[in-house]
Protein backbone atom coordinates (compact mmCIF):
# COMPACT_ATOMS: atom_id res chain seq x y z
CA UNK A 1 0.00 0.00 0.00
CA UNK A 2 1.34 3.39 -0.96
CA UNK A 3 2.22 5.78 1.85
CA UNK A 4 0.48 9.12 2.40
CA UNK A 5 1.09 11.68 -0.30
CA UNK A 6 3.49 14.44 0.80
CA UNK A 7 1.73 17.69 1.57
CA UNK A 8 2.70 21.00 -0.11
CA UNK A 9 5.39 22.93 1.74
CA UNK A 10 4.49 25.87 3.92
CA UNK A 11 6.69 28.95 3.49
CA UNK A 12 8.96 28.12 6.45
CA UNK A 13 9.23 24.47 5.41
CA UNK A 14 10.09 25.48 1.85
CA UNK A 15 12.98 27.66 3.05
CA UNK A 16 14.34 24.86 5.26
CA UNK A 17 14.01 22.44 2.35
CA UNK A 18 15.92 24.72 -0.02
CA UNK A 19 18.67 25.25 2.55
CA UNK A 20 19.05 21.47 2.77
CA UNK A 21 18.71 20.81 -0.97
CA UNK A 22 21.48 23.16 -2.14
CA UNK A 23 24.29 21.50 -0.09
CA UNK A 24 22.95 18.10 -1.15
CA UNK A 25 23.21 19.06 -4.81
CA UNK A 26 26.70 20.45 -4.25
CA UNK A 27 27.80 17.14 -2.72
CA UNK A 28 26.46 15.27 -5.76
CA UNK A 29 27.88 16.47 -9.05
CA UNK A 30 25.01 14.88 -10.94
CA UNK A 31 21.81 13.51 -9.41
CA UNK A 32 18.44 12.58 -10.90
CA UNK A 33 15.21 14.18 -9.79
CA UNK A 34 13.97 10.76 -8.65
CA UNK A 35 17.07 10.18 -6.48
CA UNK A 36 16.71 13.59 -4.86
CA UNK A 37 13.00 13.02 -4.26
CA UNK A 38 13.68 9.66 -2.59
CA UNK A 39 16.42 11.19 -0.44
CA UNK A 40 14.15 13.94 0.90
CA UNK A 41 10.96 11.82 0.86
CA UNK A 42 9.07 14.28 -1.36
CA UNK A 43 7.34 14.15 -4.73
CA UNK A 44 9.59 14.58 -7.83
CA UNK A 45 7.52 17.62 -8.81
CA UNK A 46 8.49 19.33 -5.56
CA UNK A 47 12.16 18.78 -6.44
CA UNK A 48 11.60 20.29 -9.91
CA UNK A 49 9.86 23.33 -8.42
CA UNK A 50 12.71 23.80 -5.96
CA UNK A 51 15.35 23.56 -8.68
CA UNK A 52 13.53 26.20 -10.75
CA UNK A 53 13.49 28.45 -7.69
CA UNK A 54 17.19 27.87 -7.00
CA UNK A 55 17.98 28.85 -10.59
CA UNK A 56 16.58 32.36 -10.01
CA UNK A 57 18.25 32.77 -6.60
CA UNK A 58 21.55 34.41 -5.84
CA UNK A 59 23.38 37.32 -4.29
CA UNK A 60 23.45 40.76 -5.91
CA UNK A 61 26.86 42.15 -6.78
CA UNK A 62 28.46 45.47 -5.88
CA UNK A 63 25.96 47.34 -8.08
CA UNK A 64 23.08 45.82 -6.09
CA UNK A 65 21.79 44.48 -9.40
CA UNK A 66 21.79 40.84 -10.38
CA UNK A 67 24.22 39.84 -13.11
CA UNK A 68 24.56 36.39 -14.65
CA UNK A 69 27.35 35.30 -12.29
CA UNK A 70 25.33 36.44 -9.27
CA UNK A 71 22.73 33.68 -9.76
CA UNK A 72 22.80 29.93 -9.40
CA UNK A 73 22.70 28.15 -12.72
CA UNK A 74 22.09 24.56 -13.78
CA UNK A 75 22.63 22.43 -16.84
CA UNK A 76 19.20 23.01 -18.38
CA UNK A 77 19.66 20.42 -21.13
CA UNK A 78 20.36 17.71 -18.57
CA UNK A 79 17.46 18.91 -16.43
CA UNK A 80 14.84 19.12 -19.19
CA UNK A 81 15.92 16.16 -21.31
CA UNK A 82 17.34 13.67 -18.79
CA UNK A 83 15.66 14.79 -15.55
CA UNK A 84 19.13 15.26 -14.02
CA UNK A 85 20.27 18.13 -11.79
CA UNK A 86 23.75 19.58 -12.28
CA UNK A 87 24.77 22.89 -10.71
CA UNK A 88 26.98 24.81 -13.14
CA UNK A 89 27.28 28.04 -11.12
CA UNK A 90 27.29 28.32 -7.36
CA UNK A 91 26.74 31.58 -5.56
CA UNK A 92 27.87 32.77 -2.12
CA UNK A 93 28.13 29.28 -0.65
CA UNK A 94 31.60 28.76 -2.09
CA UNK A 95 32.72 31.94 -0.33
CA UNK A 96 31.21 31.04 3.05
CA UNK A 97 33.58 30.49 6.01
CA UNK A 98 34.97 26.98 6.26
CA UNK A 99 36.53 25.01 9.07
CA UNK A 100 40.26 25.39 9.32
CA UNK A 101 42.30 22.20 8.97
CA UNK A 102 42.90 22.22 12.73
CA UNK A 103 39.20 22.65 13.53
CA UNK A 104 38.24 19.85 11.13
CA UNK A 105 40.90 17.57 12.63
CA UNK A 106 39.51 18.14 16.13
CA UNK A 107 35.98 17.33 14.96
CA UNK A 108 37.17 14.22 13.12
CA UNK A 109 38.93 12.97 16.24
CA UNK A 110 35.72 13.44 18.23
CA UNK A 111 33.75 11.50 15.62
CA UNK A 112 36.33 8.71 15.66
CA UNK A 113 35.89 8.52 19.43
CA UNK A 114 32.11 8.22 19.00
CA UNK A 115 32.50 5.49 16.39
CA UNK A 116 34.36 3.39 19.00
CA UNK A 117 31.33 3.35 21.30
CA UNK A 118 28.83 0.49 20.94
CA UNK A 119 25.79 2.75 20.66
CA UNK A 120 27.40 4.57 17.72
CA UNK A 121 29.28 1.70 16.12
CA UNK A 122 28.88 1.09 12.40
CA UNK A 123 26.98 4.33 11.87
CA UNK A 124 27.27 5.23 8.18
CA UNK A 125 26.35 8.81 9.03
CA UNK A 126 29.55 9.23 11.08
CA UNK A 127 31.73 7.96 8.24
CA UNK A 128 29.89 10.27 5.83
CA UNK A 129 30.37 13.27 8.09
CA UNK A 130 34.09 12.54 8.51
CA UNK A 131 34.42 12.42 4.72
CA UNK A 132 32.61 15.75 4.35
CA UNK A 133 34.79 17.40 6.99
CA UNK A 134 37.89 16.15 5.20
CA UNK A 135 36.72 17.71 1.93
CA UNK A 136 35.16 20.94 3.19
CA UNK A 137 38.04 22.69 4.92
CA UNK A 138 40.18 25.68 4.10
CA UNK A 139 43.32 23.52 4.07
CA UNK A 140 44.50 19.94 3.94
CA UNK A 141 43.46 17.87 6.94
CA UNK A 142 46.31 15.93 8.52
CA UNK A 143 45.69 12.20 9.05
CA UNK A 144 44.38 11.89 12.62
CA UNK A 145 43.13 9.15 14.87
CA UNK A 146 42.09 8.79 18.48
CA UNK A 147 44.52 6.43 20.12
CA UNK A 148 42.12 5.44 22.88
CA UNK A 149 39.39 4.67 20.39
CA UNK A 150 41.59 2.56 18.13
CA UNK A 151 43.18 0.65 21.01
CA UNK A 152 39.91 0.09 22.85
CA UNK A 153 39.26 -3.35 21.38
CA UNK A 154 42.80 -4.58 22.08
CA UNK A 155 42.63 -3.31 25.67
CA UNK A 156 39.12 -4.65 26.31
CA UNK A 157 38.35 -7.96 24.58
CA UNK A 158 34.74 -7.74 25.77
CA UNK A 159 34.00 -4.64 23.66
CA UNK A 160 33.06 -6.58 20.52
CA UNK A 161 30.57 -8.62 22.54
CA UNK A 162 29.12 -5.47 24.09
CA UNK A 163 28.59 -4.06 20.60
CA UNK A 164 26.95 -7.29 19.50
CA UNK A 165 24.69 -7.19 22.56
CA UNK A 166 23.59 -3.64 21.74
CA UNK A 167 23.12 -4.32 18.03
CA UNK A 168 21.05 -7.47 18.59
CA UNK A 169 19.14 -6.20 21.63
CA UNK A 170 20.24 -9.18 23.74
CA UNK A 171 21.37 -9.35 27.35
CA UNK A 172 25.08 -9.63 28.15
CA UNK A 173 26.43 -11.99 30.82
CA UNK A 174 29.91 -11.85 32.34
CA UNK A 175 32.06 -12.38 35.43
CA UNK A 176 32.82 -9.14 37.25
CA UNK A 177 35.55 -8.49 39.82
CA UNK A 178 34.15 -5.81 42.12
CA UNK A 179 36.04 -3.27 44.24
CA UNK A 180 36.19 -5.69 47.17
CA UNK A 181 37.94 -8.36 45.12
CA UNK A 182 34.79 -10.49 44.87
CA UNK A 183 33.86 -12.12 41.58
CA UNK A 184 30.20 -12.35 40.64
CA UNK A 185 28.31 -13.45 37.55
CA UNK A 186 26.29 -10.53 36.24
CA UNK A 187 23.62 -10.27 33.54
CA UNK A 188 22.99 -6.78 32.17
CA UNK A 189 21.23 -4.79 29.51
CA UNK A 190 24.14 -2.81 28.02
CA UNK A 191 23.23 0.88 27.83
CA UNK A 192 26.33 2.98 27.27
CA UNK A 193 30.14 3.06 27.23
CA UNK A 194 31.99 5.95 28.89
CA UNK A 195 35.61 6.76 29.67
CA UNK A 196 37.53 8.73 32.26
CA UNK A 197 41.17 9.23 31.28
CA UNK A 198 42.40 5.77 30.27
CA UNK A 199 39.64 3.86 32.09
CA UNK A 200 36.54 2.62 30.26
CA UNK A 201 33.21 1.80 31.85
CA UNK A 202 30.06 -0.06 30.82
CA UNK A 203 26.80 1.42 32.04
CA UNK A 204 24.10 -1.20 32.17
CA UNK A 205 20.92 -2.34 33.86
CA UNK A 206 22.06 -5.11 36.21
CA UNK A 207 19.45 -7.86 36.60
CA UNK A 208 21.15 -9.07 39.79
CA UNK A 209 20.92 -5.65 41.50
CA UNK A 210 17.77 -4.58 39.59
CA UNK A 211 19.27 -1.13 39.00
CA UNK A 212 21.71 0.75 36.78
CA UNK A 213 25.30 -0.19 37.58
CA UNK A 214 28.72 0.83 36.29
CA UNK A 215 31.33 -1.80 35.36
CA UNK A 216 34.98 -1.21 34.54
CA UNK A 217 35.75 -2.99 31.29
CA UNK A 218 39.12 -4.29 32.49
CA UNK A 219 37.33 -6.08 35.37
CA UNK A 220 34.98 -7.93 33.00
CA UNK A 221 35.81 -11.49 31.92
CA UNK A 222 34.03 -14.45 30.40
CA UNK A 223 31.51 -12.28 28.59
CA UNK A 224 28.84 -13.93 26.42
CA UNK A 225 25.81 -12.64 24.56
CA UNK A 226 22.72 -14.51 25.78
CA UNK A 227 19.50 -15.41 23.97
CA UNK A 228 17.39 -13.24 26.30
CA UNK A 229 16.08 -9.95 24.93
CA UNK A 230 17.05 -6.78 26.81
CA UNK A 231 14.38 -5.28 29.06
CA UNK A 232 15.80 -1.76 29.40
CA UNK A 233 17.23 0.75 26.94
CA UNK A 234 19.16 3.96 27.56
CA UNK A 235 16.07 5.98 26.62
CA UNK A 236 13.96 4.10 29.19
CA UNK A 237 16.04 4.69 32.33
CA UNK A 238 17.77 7.58 34.02
CA UNK A 239 21.53 7.21 33.76
CA UNK A 240 23.08 8.74 36.89
CA UNK A 241 26.39 10.58 36.84
CA UNK A 242 29.27 8.19 36.23
CA UNK A 243 30.44 8.29 39.83
CA UNK A 244 27.12 8.95 41.56
CA UNK A 245 26.92 7.16 44.89
CA UNK A 246 25.40 3.71 45.22
CA UNK A 247 24.83 1.29 48.12
CA UNK A 248 27.90 -0.67 46.96
CA UNK A 249 30.27 2.30 47.43
CA UNK A 250 33.22 2.13 49.82
CA UNK A 251 33.64 4.62 52.66
CA UNK A 252 37.10 6.10 53.27
CA UNK A 253 38.09 8.39 56.16
CA UNK A 254 40.58 11.11 55.25
CA UNK A 255 42.29 14.19 56.62
CA UNK A 256 42.33 17.06 54.13
CA UNK A 257 43.48 20.67 54.06
CA UNK A 258 40.46 22.91 54.69
CA UNK A 259 41.20 24.92 51.53
CA UNK A 260 40.94 21.74 49.41
CA UNK A 261 37.51 20.66 50.66
CA UNK A 262 35.68 22.16 47.65
CA UNK A 263 37.76 19.92 45.35
CA UNK A 264 36.31 16.84 47.05
CA UNK A 265 32.70 17.99 47.22
CA UNK A 266 31.54 15.42 44.63
CA UNK A 267 32.95 12.56 46.71
CA UNK A 268 31.63 13.61 50.14
CA UNK A 269 28.14 12.15 50.75
CA UNK A 270 25.31 14.24 52.12
CA UNK A 271 25.29 14.20 55.89
CA UNK A 272 28.95 13.19 56.21
CA UNK A 273 30.47 14.38 59.48
CA UNK A 274 33.40 16.77 59.03
CA UNK A 275 35.57 17.56 62.07
CA UNK A 276 38.03 20.50 61.95
CA UNK A 277 41.50 19.87 63.41
CA UNK A 278 43.75 22.89 63.07
CA UNK A 279 44.02 23.71 59.39
CA UNK A 280 42.80 20.27 58.34
CA UNK A 281 39.42 18.55 58.32
CA UNK A 282 38.62 14.90 58.96
CA UNK A 283 35.75 13.68 56.80
CA UNK A 284 34.45 10.68 54.87
CA UNK A 285 34.55 9.98 51.15
CA UNK A 286 32.54 7.48 49.17
CA UNK A 287 34.25 5.82 46.21
CA UNK A 288 33.17 2.98 43.95
CA UNK A 289 36.60 1.28 44.14
CA UNK A 290 40.08 1.90 45.50
CA UNK A 291 41.50 2.34 42.00
CA UNK A 292 39.61 5.61 41.72
CA UNK A 293 40.73 6.55 45.23
CA UNK A 294 44.39 6.10 44.25
CA UNK A 295 44.00 8.48 41.33
CA UNK A 296 42.17 11.01 43.50
CA UNK A 297 44.81 11.01 46.25
CA UNK A 298 47.66 11.11 43.73
CA UNK A 299 46.18 14.28 42.23
CA UNK A 300 46.41 16.04 45.63
CA UNK A 301 49.85 15.15 47.04
CA UNK A 302 50.46 16.36 50.58
CA UNK A 303 46.93 17.72 50.81
CA UNK A 304 45.01 14.54 51.61
CA UNK A 305 45.90 11.69 53.99
CA UNK A 306 43.95 8.42 54.02
CA UNK A 307 43.16 7.37 57.61
CA UNK A 308 40.92 4.29 57.26
CA UNK A 309 40.18 1.56 56.40
CA UNK A 310 43.51 -0.20 56.27
CA UNK A 311 42.77 -1.66 52.83
CA UNK A 312 42.40 1.87 51.45
CA UNK A 313 45.66 3.00 53.08
CA UNK A 314 47.46 -0.04 51.65
CA UNK A 315 46.09 0.55 48.15
CA UNK A 316 47.28 4.17 48.13
CA UNK A 317 50.67 3.26 49.66
CA UNK A 318 51.26 0.57 47.02
CA UNK A 319 50.28 2.99 44.25
CA UNK A 320 52.72 5.61 45.58
CA UNK A 321 55.52 3.09 46.00
CA UNK A 322 55.07 1.77 42.48
CA UNK A 323 55.21 5.32 41.12
CA UNK A 324 58.36 6.13 43.10
CA UNK A 325 60.00 2.92 41.91
CA UNK A 326 59.72 4.04 38.29
CA UNK A 327 62.01 7.00 39.04
CA UNK A 328 64.86 4.86 40.36
UniProtKB/TrEMBL annotation:
Residue ranges annotated for the PafC HTH domain, each copy included: 13-135
Domain WYL: 159-223
Source superkingdom: Bacteria
Chain ranges of the WCX domain: 250-322
PANTHER family: PROTEIN PAFC (PTHR34580:SF1), PTHR34580
Protein name: Protein pafC
Species: Pseudolysinimonas yzui
UniProt lineage: Bacteria, Bacillati, Actinomycetota, Actinomycetes, Micrococcales
